Structures are given as structure tokens and as C-alpha cells.
User: Fold these one by one.
Assistant:
Number 1:
Amino acid sequence: MENKKTRTFQTETKKMLDIMIHSIYTHKEIFLRELISNSADALNKIRFESLSNEEIKLEDELEINIYLDKKNRTITIEDNGIGMSESEVIENIGTVAKSGSEKFVKALENKNDALEIIGQFGVGFYSSFMVANEVEIFTKRINDESVYWHSEGMDDYTIEQCDKEKNGTKIILHLREGEEFDELLDTYKIENLVKTHSNYISFPIKMDVEKQVPDEDSEDEYKMITVIEKKVLNSMIPIWRKAKNEITEEEYYEFYKNKFHEFTNPLEVIHTKVEGMVSYNAMLFIPSKPAFNFLMSNEKDGVDLYSKQIFIMKNVDNLLPEYLSFVKGIVDSPDFNLNISREVLQKDRLIKTIGKNLEKKILKALSSKLEKEREEYELWWSEFGIAIKNGIYQNPDKKDKLVDLLLFHSNKSGEKLVSLKEYVENMKDDQDKIYYVVTMDKERAMNLPQLEKIQDSDYEVLFFTDPVDEFMVNFLNEYDGKKLSSLNKSDESDNSEDTKEIKEENSDLLDALKENLDNKIDEIAISTKLKNTAVCLVTDSLGISLHTEELLKKMQDMPMNSKKILEINPNHEVFEKLKKEFEENGNSEMIKEYSEILLNQALIMEGLEIENPTKFANQISKLMTK
Ligand code: ADP
């Protein structure tokens, strides 16, 4: 044998191992499904490679074998898959660079509840150390040297050459001491675990099981003896090939949770079979809880591609549009070419056709949820609504298909949400617009001065609290022929003759106020929105709201500057006072100071920072003691 090398685990790996070893996680048995799933991947890979590489001849049946050894307390999982070369072992097993494990460590950095996270991820191979204190791997890649890896899950592992004859991987777990581990040496227990977690793996998972058979050598026809027989433990029929009425809800959920390492049941399962010009089988899941990297990374689970049950590709990104990337599942079509590359798929017409059909089905499922199970939909919406809004923003041509899925909080909806359709149904006879206000949250929205007057008319106002809302609304513009109108913006069309008159009469005062606030505002206007409050700050109808402007500034992402308009309430006593002072003393010191105070009030009400809070406080104190 070649020289033995000892290597230290990378820091992240150590962190992970430490959690695995010391966790009191109750689902320790997931290690089995993880190892089986790795083996199944390895079998898929060799089958796939054999299609294009003549050197690879698959003589034996592709299979996974489990061996239990009670005496030595070991569980062995062996496959005749692709195997690993020495460098692959080092790269894949000794480091946390691979998908599942990397996600896991990242999530750990953000959250400290390791136990909760373990279940959510396919942490793969490392989960072995939850049940074993020593792990051995014998592996051989085709036409390569075989490799032996050994570790006790502490700081390091050893690696050396060995003499495994056939390609594939054999993993031996030396179980920890303790009753909870003893049961893992029981054939029934293992058979059950395979049935619940790995039933649909498309390769046979075999194990020696004891069986009672009549003893043919005995004269007593009832005498039974125990024989050992190799048994295939899993059904092997992929769930999506079964007819709908043969699958229970539980089975769907179990498949979903296992395949996508999910914790919670999905919101909806879409299982469809199409035959004709294009033929395919699809099983899609709309999750009920977002993945930790929802909306962030490209490296997430999506829809996997199969052809006649043979796995082709993970997460085909151009099947479903970007905004539906939270949907998980599989599509199996005999028409897919096994050797297809991602690049070719980009343009594949078949993929496009299937994708379109599936998108339709997903949207239909969502709208039926909205209609029939409103509460559940609202919960779902609170997590995933942003994806649908992004859908409108990213594909304005799809707005008609998506707009009825939107829900918003409003001044009338309380804890519930309202759809645009419901909004329009509830509109007052004299109301011709759909009103909304962009703000940080519902609580702040309720207190905005712009709502005062409109509330008096008993109009409903939608609250736009997601950053994407305001961008989305630019593409919506109207719904059911009713214009969407923002209370964060000045709206010339609201101006009545009365307002114009007040504006003309007080043009000198207004000019003076604007001059006093030069650089800070772009315009001063007579407000039609206010009732009890003296001022509010809005932007012009072309720009974005102050709230969104502030958000963009914080993100340092293309800061935008909207035109700022200070609206003043002509029916407020403050306005009367300003008028009087201006008539008597022109643009006096007092008017200058009041201008500043009014602007700062407006800023505070919008939740924005003011330039000099101490000065503002002192000005107020002075007024109080006058
Ligand atoms: P994941 O499966 O999420 O990638 P694992 O830690 O389980 O993470 O496995 C890491 C990598 O090790 C796999 O991606 C694969 O490349 C390799 N590997 C694990 N088990 C096997 C196996 N039985 N045969 C071949 N390669 C394997």
C-alpha cells in the first residue's frame, strides 16, 4: 500500500462535525437516507457517463447494498456507482465545499439553532458522525486507483491507497455505544427507514433479511427454519410515474420532504401527466415556507429533469420563469435527450412548451388556493408574495395573469389582507381611484397625515410596505379601469377651483416659504389631503416615494432623487397664523423659523431623519414657553 497521509479537516468541516457529534438531534436516522441518496447520485452518474463513454461497460446491475454486523457494531453501505478518485475524496469528503454542507454552514452563521437547521439541509455524508464514532470509506473511480479514507470525526482523517477491485464506494460506519444506536443494527428498523425515506430511489437497495421457510429436510411439514435472503427493500417506482389515485397525501409529502430536505408540508402539490405532441410527467411542489436562500442565491433546489426515470439535470433554470424559482419538483419526459447540455436547454422548444404549461398550472393552483383556502393562502402570501410582485416587475407582460394573486394590507383590512378585486368591489359610489400609500409598515401607514381626509370619505387605502411594491405599481398603473393613485405623491388632478384660488391668493407667502427652505424642498403646494395636520411631505407624480428613495439610499444602489413637495393644509390654524404674520411683517424671522419647523415635522411623520434634532427640540420648547 502506498504511504498513508494524515490530513486535517478544514475549519468549517470541523465546525460541522462538532455539531453532528454533540447534537442531541432526534432524527439521527437521517444519516441513512443521506448516504443512500449519495449512492443513488453516484449510480446515476455512472449510468449517465456510460451512455457517452464506451469504455464504461455496465456489466452488473446498478445497486445499493446494506450490510449489518451486530457483532462488530457496523453498518455498511455499498454502491457500484461512479466512485471517487483520491483528489475527489479530498475535495468532496474532507471539505465543506459541496452544495448541502456549504449551505448548512452558511445558515449556521446566521442562526444559532443548529438542531433546527440540520433537518432542513441535506448535510449529507457528515451526518454519519451522528451515529458513528469511526467511519471508513473504500472507493474506486473507474480506471483509477482505489482509495481508503478513515476518520474518527475529530480533527483529521487519513487517506491511503487500497485494493478495492470494482468501481464504487463502500462506507463502513462503526456505531456509537448506546441503546439508541443498537436499534440501527436491526433489519426491521433499517427496512423501515429505507421504506419511509428512500422508497422511490430508482435503484434497488438490497439487504440480507431473515426469512422463515418450511424445512424441507424435516418430516414435520410445519417445521420452519430461518434462511437468509437478499431482499430489495424499496419499491423503486418513482412516485411521479404512479397514478394520482394510487398516491396518498402522506406519500406526496414524504417524497417532497426527502427529496428537497424540507421540514414542512408544501402548500400545494401539482401532479400532472400529459400525453400528445409533448409527453411528460410532472410533480411540482409549492413550498409553504421559504428556503433560507429564497430570493438570494442561484444555487437552490428547483425543478429536476428526468427522462424515463433517468436523472438528467438538477434545477433546470429556464423551465420556469425566474419569479417561480421557489417551486420545486421534477419533470420526466421521454422526449428529453439524455445528453442535453444546459446551453442547449436554454433554447429547447420542448422545455419552453412544458414550462409554459406548468407556469399556467402553478398560477391556477395559487388562485384556487386564494379563493378556497384564504387563510392558508394569506400565510403563504406573507412569505412568498414578494416573488409574485417580482414577477410583475420582471415580466410586465404577465401582469394580467398575476395581478389577481396580489394581496395588501389596508386601512380597513385589519389583520387580514385585501385583493384588488375586493378593493374595487368595496369602492364607494363617488370613488374613482384605487388609493395606496408607500410606507415602512402598517402601523406607520395608519398614522400618516395623508390618510386623514380620505378616511373621512370612508375610502380604502392600500398599504405598500414591500420595497418592490412601488416599482411594481409602475407597471400596473390601473386595475379594472381604475387608476392606482399614490398618497405619497402630489396629484394635480385633485386640485379643485378652491385650491387654485387659495394658491393664487397666497402666492407670495408660498414663495417665501419655499425660499426659506431652499435646497431642501423643490416645491410648496396647497394640500387637498390633510385635515388635522398642518403639513406633509410628498414627491411629484413622476418620481418615487420618499420611503423608497430612502431605502435605495441605504442600499447604496442607484440613489434616486425625487422632487420633494411640502404640502400645507390651508384649513389649519398654523396656515392662518402664517398668513397673518406675513401680512404684517413679511418674511420675518418667525416665518423663517416656522418654515423650518414645518418641514421637520413633515420629515418626522414620514419616518425620515431631520438635519438637527437638537435645534428642532429647542425650537419646540421655545414655542411651548411662549
Ligand atoms: P452532497 O451530497 O450534498 O453534495 P455530501 O457531503 O453528502 O454532500 O457528499 C459530498 C460529495 O461527495 C458528493 O457531492 C459526491 O461528489 C461525493 N460522494 C459522496 N458519497 C459518494 C458516493 N457514494 N459515491 C461517489 N461520490 C460520493
Number 2:
Amino acid sequence: MQEINNLWNIVLEKLELSVSNVSFVMWFNPLKVVDFSSNNVLYLCAKSTFAKNQILKNYFDKLKSAVDEVFGENIEIEIFDPSEEKEYISKNKPKSVSKEIDSSKNPFNTKYTFNNFVVGKCNQTAYAAAKAVAENPGKSFNPLFIYGGVGLGKTHLLHAIGNFIRESKPNLKIKYVTCEQFTNDYIESLGSAGKTKTYSEFRDKYRKCDVLMVDDIQFISKKTSTQEEFFNTFNDLHQFGKQIIISSDRPPKEIETLEERLRSRFTMGLIQDLQSPDFETRVAILRKKCQIEKYSISEDAISYIAEKIDSNVRELEGMLSKVCFLSNLIGKTLADINDVKEAFSDKYEEKNEGGKTADQIINAVCEYFDITKNDIVGKKKSKDIVEPRMIAIYMISDMLELPLVSIGKIFGGRDHTTIMHARDKISTELKTNRKTQTFVSEIKKMLTSG
Ligand code: ADP
Ligand code: MG
């Protein structure tokens, strides 16, 4: 596996040269190798379902060709999101090995706790209800139905309940699934050919638990058999005082696919909604996140983010981590308002609309000056190499706006101050020196025509 990770690092290096910096930072760098199977399938995990879909939609070909180049031909790539990864690990790793198994046993994200949930007007009743249910499962509100728009903390609250009960009542069996998992599980248990699970296993799994959570119930299919199965499961559990918790992006009466009898079951307990956080709550959420992730960022930068993103907490967090990541990459210890503005502008992506990559720029410079790529990224100090090298550094920095640290990496691991010096030198020369102006403009022409 160590060897696979080494190969993967080479893949990453290749990708870094062939895609824009933002794409690299956002999509490729966070990818993690899960497994490399004997039949040549490379299993990767993206940091979220969103990231997974982005990669599949926009970057799969790049990924595939980099992997093929490094691993050799004919590697199949399978990308998981974090929950699929968990499932894969629990299915494929033998029970006896490693701590990974133990952590995969806990289906709850340990960061999603009540302590880490910031309470404001927008969510205080839903929070209180979740807390009451966690303290007295089956005895306060049953079912508890939490609804609210995307990224407002439904999954967080469900996991918080799960984490809380695991701690306080470790003997209770808690089952957490997304609606989709429930449906797939059910269908799989019915299938005949080559089936791995039987219907009775399915029943046991869902009816012998003390707490059942179903996330995103709005995805329940119209198929009556699935709804019927869920209806029966619900009744069975409810009748024996087992806790049921359901989340949805809208209230029961607005879920079109829901059968009437289920809808009325959902209204038996307590229905609570999550609203978009107000400005103060958004600031508090960002501060909390900084504390958890140990980010350092200035107060005005936090306010700026909280002002600009006003509905979705997931986006709020995403922007915060993007800002801190980028600021860190250029060697800053405290992210400030400039980093935020930078991250908000789509400059990176716009700038790179011509689709040029660092690699292409380097190739063009090499061709123009008739030197090799090894020379330009290497250590040679003769003038006929140093000047093209500085021009390449300048052009990459100017055209792609790559952070200095990343450019340093491309040029054989040079320090970011060296890169800065080269960039500034060329940028000054361009103001007065005819020769430098010609070099740069001719190389640019090569890039746009080629
Ligand atoms: P949903 O399931 O409603 O789409 P999530 O529960 O996945 O949303 O929340 C999205 C992100 O926002 C998560 O990282 C979660 O921790 C965070 N989040 C949402 N609400 C809060 C809050 N009140 N306090 C702290 N973090 C929150
Ligand atoms: Mg969710």
C-alpha cells in the first residue's frame, strides 16, 4: 500500500502541472487512495459527494490519463464519496485487522456533535428537540422529524444524536442510513441472482435497533413496495418504543412521493425546522469552525465571509477552508481580508480560460529558447538557462496566478522567495527592456496559436 501511495503522489504531481491551481487544490489534492485491488481497480475517495461529482463530470479524463501514465495502461478508477468509502471498507477489510475497522464501526462523524453545533434563533428549537431525543430516546418525541434547506445542519444534528447516544447509552443499537441506502438495501435483499444479503438479514438490521435514523427521506421512491417496507419498519419500531428520527429538505406535506399513511405517521411526533442562520450566527459558526480546524484568520475576514454567504452553512465552511488553505499555501500564518477577496473572485478560473497549464507554458518557453525541460526546472545557473527560467516563472505566475509555493514545486522545489524574486525581476524588466518584452509576447503568441 505504501508503494501505491508513492505512485499516487506522482499522479498528483502530474495533475498539478496539467490543471489549474484551483482545480488542483479543490478537487485532486484532497483525493485519498482507499485501495488498489488485484484486478487493477484503483479506489479513491473524494472529500464529499459534491467533489466526487465534480471530478466525474469535469476532470475524469485528466485523472484517468495521469493514472494510466503512472500505473501503466488499463487501470479502472472508482471514486467514492466518504459514506461509500465507509461502506466499502466495512465490506472489504477482514474483521480482524487494523483500527480502520473500529472507526468504520462508528457511522457518525465525530465532529458532528452538539458541542460543535452553534445555536441561534434559526435552529434553537430543532436543537433542543434533538437534544431531548438524544437524552431520552423513545421517550420524548417520537418520531422526531427535522426539515430544512440544504446545508443547514440536518445531518449534523442526526450525527450529534448518534454520537451522544453512543457515549451515554453504549448498549443501544443505533442505525443511521440515508433514504437511498435504505432503499438499496431493501431492493438488494429481494434480488435473486447472486445476492449477498437475504430479506431476513435486512429485517433484522432495521427492526432490531433501538434508534433508527433516516436522512433525506424526501428521496423515498414512489415504489409502493419500498414505502410499504418502510411503513412496516416504522410501525414495528414505534410500537416497541424505539426512537425514530427522520430528516428531509421539506415538511412531510410537501414530499410529493410520500404515501398518505406514512405522512400521517411522520406527524405523530414532533416536526421541527431549521432556518438559515442570521449574520451573528454565521459569524459564530465560522469562529467555531476555526477553533475546531485550528485555522487562523482575521476577524474582518470572518465578517466578510459571513456577509457574503448568507444561506448555506456548508458553503460558508467551504469558503472558510478555501481561504485558509490558499493563504497557508503562500506561507501566511494569518489569513486576512485580501485572501478572502482573492478566494471570492473567480479570477483563478477566468484567468485560465485559455486552458493553458504550467506544463504548456514551460514547453513553449523551452521551445522558444531551444533548451530542455530538465534544464529549465533544474539547477543550472548559466545565463542562457536562468533567463528563460525566470521568464517561465513570471508567465506561470501571471497567466495562471499559481501561488508561489506551487510554482516553487514545479521548478524542482525552489523556495517561494526565489520564485517571487524571479517573478518581480521579469515584471520590472518588462516595463523598460525591449528584449524581454519581445520574448514574453512571442511566447504568448506561440501559446495561443498552438
Ligand atoms: P444538511 O444535512 O442540512 O444538508 P449538514 O448537516 O451536512 O447539512 O451541514 C453542512 C455543514 O454545515 C456541516 O459541516 C455542519 O457541521 C455545518 N453546520 C450546519 N449548521 C451548523 C451549526 N448550527 N453549527 C455548526 N456547524 C453547522
Ligand atoms: Mg444532509
Number 3:
Amino acid sequence: MSYQRIRYEEPTEGVARITLARPEAANAQDYLMLSELNAAFDVAARDETVRVIILAADGKHFSSGHDLSAVAPDMDLLPRVGTQCHFDAPGTEGYMAREAEMYLGLCWRWRNLPKPTIAQVQGKVIAGGLMLVWPMDIIVASEDTTFSDPVVAFNVNGVEYFAHPFEAGARLAKEMLFTGRSLDAEELLQRGMVNKVVPRAKLEDAALEMAAHIAKRPMFGLTLAKQSVNQSVDAMGMYTSLQSAFSLHHVGHSHNMEVHGKRIDPQGIEVIRAEA
Ligand code: ZN
């Protein structure tokens, strides 16, 4: 397969690595990138020789989030994985369907891939960046990594994959959302959101070493272990919580459209830039 926004490699036996390859735009995500990511995850999932999947990124920053400059693409040109429809319907109907398909739908799909996944992250991971990192099973971060979701400044609740309470814990989730503060890798290592923190120069090797170690175990055992943990979190209500927050996210978008004529509060970008 040929890709424009990502790369796909098999750096060592049993390991596939998918790399966001748009460093000139800090790996901002447009629908093409998300669609290619999904295709690459499928390739890795279906390849019987692959046991572990690494998600990495080129450049200084893992991802600055959604590409806010991207024009809404024709959904008929993208392969779809869910049963969403009416993407071009006016009002909330079409926009909610797009975000349900491209954000919540894809992320939940990746979260449930039947093989272990490792996020290899550096630099800034902002809002939509969390949406790629959190569905992975393990997070290996370089010391310079910071995680933030400042989009309350846009007058919405947070990024569409609203896993904050599960990933950061309820109290820290509120702080990160209310203040927009960046949390660094070391702080999140202590909180259990990050598995390992290494110097930037050792990041790629550290992720690969972890992947190669995991890949020595039998595939079915790994899948069963992953599903057991995921199902425990599901029993705590994770998917219901994600869907509920996604609905509120669209209340926010709809409110902004009524008040500002845009899906996000246009003042938000100035607030975020001033605090960056
Ligand atoms: Zn949204």
C-alpha cells in the first residue's frame, strides 16, 4: 500500500511500526491521515507475522491534534469502518456523523485491536494527539513529552475520544481540562498514564525493545490478556462514558454554531496561543 501521511515498516521480527509522517505540520491530523492510520492498523492486524504494533511520529512533536485548516473531505472518497451515514446532512446531523466515524469510531476500533499496541511519543501531544495515544495499550515517552487538552477554550468539553477520567483519574482530568495545562511525561509516569520515560535519543530503541520483548510471547495469550484488561475497564463503563461525553461534545459544537456561527468558539485559539 502507498501512503501520503504515514509510513509502515517492520523494524524487527514480529513488530510493525506505523509512523505519522507529516512533521512539517507537527503531525496535524486530517481525515486522510486518520484513514491511512486505520488502513495500516488493519494491515498489521491481519499480518500473521506481526504480534506487536508501534505507533510513532516523525519530527519534534508527536501530534498537534486535528488539522483545523483542513477542508471537510468528501466522505465517499474514504473507506468507512462504521455504520454512520448522512455525512453531508446540514446542521449537527452531518457533523456529528463525521466525528462519530472519524474520531470516536476509529479510536475505539484501534483500542480494541487484538494485538498489543505501543505509542512511542515525543514533544507535544495536544488534544487530537491524545486521541491517537490513549487507545494504545502502552505509552513510551521521551523526557520532553507533554500532554494537554486545551480545547475547553473552544467552548467544548474536550477532545472527542473523552478518556480523560480513565487515563488521568477524575481529579487530574478536571484540572487538565479546566486549566488547559500541559502535563509532562514524568508527572504522568507517577500517575500511571505513561509506562516508561526515556531520553529523546533513546526513544525509538526503548519502544522497539519493549515491542520485541512482548513479541516473544504467544499471540493468543497476549490477545486474551489485552481483552481481559479492556473488558475490566469496559465493566467500569468506559464505552458508555465515551459515548456520553461525545454527545455533550456535540452539544458544545451546536451551541457554538448557534452563538458564534462556528463549531468552536473563535476566541479559543487566542487563549490557547497566549498560554502556550
Ligand atoms: Zn469535535
